[in-house]
Each structure stands twice: as structure tokens, then as C-alpha cells.
Structure prediction request, 354 residues.
Amino acid sequence: MSPATTVLTVSDRGAEPQVRPGSRYHGDRAAAPEMLDFAVNIRNAQPPAWLLRRLTDRLPDLAGYPSGADHDAAIAAVAGRHGVPEDHVLLLAGGSEGFALLPALRPALAALIAPSFTEPEAVLAAAGIPLRQVVLPPPFRLGDAVIPDAADLVVVGNPTNPTGVLHPRGSVLGLRRPGRLVVVDEAFADAVPDEPESLAGAGLPDLLVLRSLTKTWSLAGLRVGYALGAPTVLARLAAARPHWPLGTLQLEAIIACCAPEAVAQARAGATVLSGLRSQLAAALSALGLPVVAGQAPFVTFVVPDGVLMRKHLRAYGIAVRRCDTFVGLTPNHLRVAVRADWPVLVAAIAEGLR
Ligand SMILES: Cc1ncc(COP(=O)(O)O)c(C=O)c1O
Prediction:
């Protein structure tokens, strides 16, 4: 029999909620300010000048509460960008907030496709929701997933962080079952040219798509994103939120980043990144390092000794993302952001292999 999918029990109802320590580790912990940062997947060192101007122009408005008009304009911008009705949009303080709201759905059993972004695990475990990690073996294809029939919530990333694997839409849709909600984390979908596998506009009642604007627009400090799903699901997610969940600058950023010119700019950037990614992946392969095949603004690969390599790179002032905090990966997996200065990174890695 093939090893297929490992199903790992992480928590069960009735047990004291336990959060796996690695699930709250994120790449920003790896990079000190003076380092060359390949650990964090934010596209640029700062937001584009036009976006900064849009935001600074709104600073005087901070005297007032966030306005309904701004909220409605942000909803309309997202709906227009994805071709969905406005009642299918919920604005979020970053894609992460979408995960933080999931316990409100009170799932009986959550299945998390791993390796993956660990915030869903952290928030569901902290809320005492029973969950299973469905660990895909390399090359991390969704077709290998064996999901427990009882799972009424399934979370999958597309493209997946940290592997970079981009699942076909059909595989993601194949996770649907009566009585189940499939949550697709599309935080990096806008970094894939033309977003061929995105389900953001699908408008299916049992699909919830989470999107982030923080990576592409270098707005991680502002916290901006949104969810796309059925109005009934969005209402349950939002029921216990504070009255003004997003501030004026967040609303302005969403309006700005979902405008057609911004979407076109993001698409052009994605094409550039995709070319750089191919170069970086080829250079790592040429060093004899196994590279996970994917399409994302980051690359995951395997080195003979990940702990030693990270130490070596740190001595060069280079930060990379450790991967042993992700369920299903090892200390020898490393993830690096795709950047134009990748040759510096590859040269340092080559040095570390000698
Ligand atoms: C795969 C994935 N999903 C979602 C998020 C959350 O993004 P944010 O809350 O910054 O929008 C991140 C952040 O690192 C991520 O890597």
C-alpha cells in the first residue's frame, strides 16, 4: 500500500485546548531589521507611493468613526473585483482575521490540509475545536488527501504556504461534501499570474475564500483582506465582531487595492515574480537541492542540514524561513521569498554547502 496521507489527531473535544507551540511561529520572527530578509513574503520594502499617498490623504479623517460610506465603497470594490454580489463579501483585518473567526461556525471536526499556514490550527486548537491534520506526502498533491468523512470544515491553502504548490481548482472543489464548508486560503493567489486556479468568484454556498492584501501591497502592518462566501456563512462569522471591525485607513486601502488599475499592477508584478521564481528554483536545483514544484512568491527546498544552513546564512546577514514548525516538513526544509536579489542568497547557500 502507498503511504498516501497521514492523518494525525491534534485535538479532540473535551480535552484541554492545546496549541502546538510551532503553530504560532511566523517568518517575521526570523529577520532582524538589518538583515537581508528572505523569510517574510511581503512583496516590497514599502507600499507603492500612490498607495501611501491615498492613505496619508485620509489621516485627517481619523478624527471620526469609520464611515458607512467607506465600508460600502470597500465592499463594492471587492465585489466588482471578483464579480460576486456585494452580500458575498466580508471585509477583514487581514486574511488572518478570517481564520480567527472560524470558531464562530462551531465545526464538529476541522480537517487541515498540511503542510500549510498554521494560524487555522492555532485558532481552532485554542478554541477547543476538534481537528485533524491531513498531511500530504511530497509532492504535496491534493489528490492524495484522505479527509475524514466527519470533517464539516476543511481548510486548504491555494497556492499553499509554505510548499508553493498550486492545486487545480477541480481538486479543491473535490473536497466538497454535503454539510461541509471548504475554506480556501488564497492569501497568495494574486501573486500567480492571472490566478488560474482561484475560486474567489465561484459564488458557491459551501465555499469560503479568504484573501489577503497585505503581501502584494506591502501592507502587513495595516491588516487588510476579505472573505468571499455565502451571506449566511459570512453573517455567522461576523456575528460577534466589534462594531467597527476595520478602521478608515484599512477601508481606504481595500478600495484602492481592488480598483482595476491596482489589480492590473498586481498582475504585472506577479508576472515578474513568476520569472524570478523560475530563475531562483533553477539555481537551487543546480546546486543539487531538491526544490518543491510550485507557483508562489516563495520557494521551498531541502538542504542536507537546515539548522547549520540557517546559522551559516545568519552569519551572512540573511534570514530564511525555517520549516520545522509546519506539520509535515522537516528541519531540512527551508522557505525563501522570491526577490530580485536572489543571486546573493544562492551564492551564500552555495558557500554553506561547501
Ligand atoms: C498562507 C497565508 N494565509 C494567510 C495569511 C494571513 O495574511 P494577512 O493576515 O497578513 O492578510 C498569511 C500570512 O503570512 C499566509 O502566509
In short: The mean pLDDT is 94. The longest strand covers residues 6-11. The first helix runs from residue 49 to 57. Residues 316 and 348 are 7 Å apart (CA to CA).
